[in-house]
Design a protein that fits this description.
The chain is built from two helices and three strands, in the order H-E-E-H-E. It is rod-shaped. The model has no long low-confidence stretch (mean pLDDT 81).
């Protein structure tokens, strides 16, 4: 009788322990999936935030009478804006950087603006 009871108890233990272990494994999988989703949401938010910052900078540059005649490329990554292009003076380049820095959401600015000097026209 004791032998049967022990076998019965061990069997019940195995029966109930199996699903408990599976639940723990499922919880680990759920936690990993949750972290992956959270990471994806964060990246999506960063993308949309960066896109909004880029749009605001471009809009502000296009509305400036001195700057709008130049063609600048604006990109944003994690709030850091990179401005590329050519300007005919240091004053214009600085104006572009100042406008960019003053734009909402900009954390830092990478200045990749090249100053090009206009060559004097040859007269004959």
């Amino acid at each position: 009788m004791k032998k049967c009871f022990i076998m019965f108890a061990v069997s019940l233990g195995i029966i109930f322990a199996g699903p408990a272990l599976a639940v723990n494994d499922d919880e680990g999988a759920f936690n990993r999936a949750g972290k992956s989703i959270d990471s994806g949401i964060k990246k999506t938010k960063e993308f949309f935030t960066d896109s909004a910052i880029t749009a605001r900078v471009k809009k502000r540059l296009s509305r400036d009478d001195y700057v709008s005649v130049f063609n600048f490329t604006v990109t944003t990554s994690k709030g850091v804006v990179t401005v590329k292009g050519e300007a005919d003076s240091e004053k214009i380049a600085q104006r572009v950087i100042d406008i960019t820095r003053a734009t909402k959401g900009v954390k830092n600015v990478n200045n990749n603006i090249m100053i090009i000097s206009k060559s004097p026209s040859s007269s004959r």
